[in-house]
User: Which sequence fits this backbone?
């Protein structure tokens, strides 16, 4: 199932050495004030997310002159693609992202797990990164709360599969939005099991790379919602931001998905970082 998007979006299928990536693009505005003209923002989704999660922020950033791309992970929704858990480490997904970016110098926006993947891509090729926005993404997933989450995920995958998440997802969706409801059911049914388990296994052991990221010199924004305590506490976000020397932004009223809950505020906050990064990268 394809989630309908406005005509201003483009859909792309990109072939990498390891497999196939589906992407959406919103080209930069060609009229009006466009301070970011010629620069690209690359958006990386969370564990159970997809490229469509960024559909509200992409037109807003494009209106300010940024060429916006959002990707699914390699064969994330393919039953005939990569089929080994070992194919879905965060390091390999970051290498795919670096391949996608190529020689462009880009701004990264990563949501939750996407922030961990984008962080690794920045560290792999810091010269190709103009900035990094970590949206609801903390330093690691090694705390007691995380271990309980992994245990629950293992049990769900062993019994009901990803559709075991449907009752929870359904409560978060607008009751009268049958299109969005159908899209989420499709995602949970179609998501590659090797991707789900492999990325989870990788996140369990991914180290805290805050010091390395701070040493990269890449400008960073740590952004999260005022109601977001799902995976990381506000104290954990704040401590990471301090160690990074990063800008920290707490969006009022948002929870774990500010790119969907507060798209305008997300973009306004990001634009400050992108402008700062332009000065740093000159």
Assistant:
């Amino acid at each position: 199932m394809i989630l309908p998007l406005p005509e201003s979006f483009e859909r792309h299928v990109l072939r990498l050495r390891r497999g196939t990536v589906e992407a959406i693009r919103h080209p930069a505005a060609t009229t009006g004030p466009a301070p970011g003209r010629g620069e690209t923002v690359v958006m990386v989704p969370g564990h159970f997310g997809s490229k469509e999660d960024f559909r509200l922020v992409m037109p807003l950033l494009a209106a300010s002159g940024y060429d916006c791309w959002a990707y699914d992970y390699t064969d994330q929704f393919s039953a005939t693609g990569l089929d080994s858990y070992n194919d879905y480490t965060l390091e390999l997904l970051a290498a795919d992202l670096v391949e996608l970016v190529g020689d462009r110098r880009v701004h990264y926006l990563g949501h939750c797990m996407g922030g961990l993947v984008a962080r690794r891509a920045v560290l792999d090729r810091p010269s190709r990164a103009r900035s990094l926005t970590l949206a609801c993404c903390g330093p690691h997933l090694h705390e007691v709360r995380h271990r309980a989450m992994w245990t629950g995920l293992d049990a769900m995958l062993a019994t009901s599969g990803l559709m075991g998440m449907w009752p929870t997802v359904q409560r978060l969706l607008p009751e009268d939005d049958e299109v969005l409801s159908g899209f989420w059911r499709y995602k949970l049914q179609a998501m590659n099991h090797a991707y789900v388990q492999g990325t989870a296994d990788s996140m369990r052991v991914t180290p805290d790379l805050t010091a390395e990221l701070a040493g990269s010199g890449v400008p960073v924004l740590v952004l999260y919602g005022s109601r977001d305590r799902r995976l990381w506490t506000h104290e954990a976000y704040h401590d990471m931001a301090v160690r990074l020397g990063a800008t920290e932004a707490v969006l009022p009223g948002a929870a774990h998905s500010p790119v969907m809950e507060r798209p305008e505020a997300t973009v306004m906050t990001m634009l400050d970082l992108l402008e700062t990064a332009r000065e740093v990268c000159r």
Observations:
- The longest strand covers residues 20-26.
- The radius of gyration is 18 Å.
- The beta strands are 10-15, 20-26, 39-44, 66-71, 106-111, 129-135, 220-225, 247-251.
- The chain is about 45% helix and 15% strand.
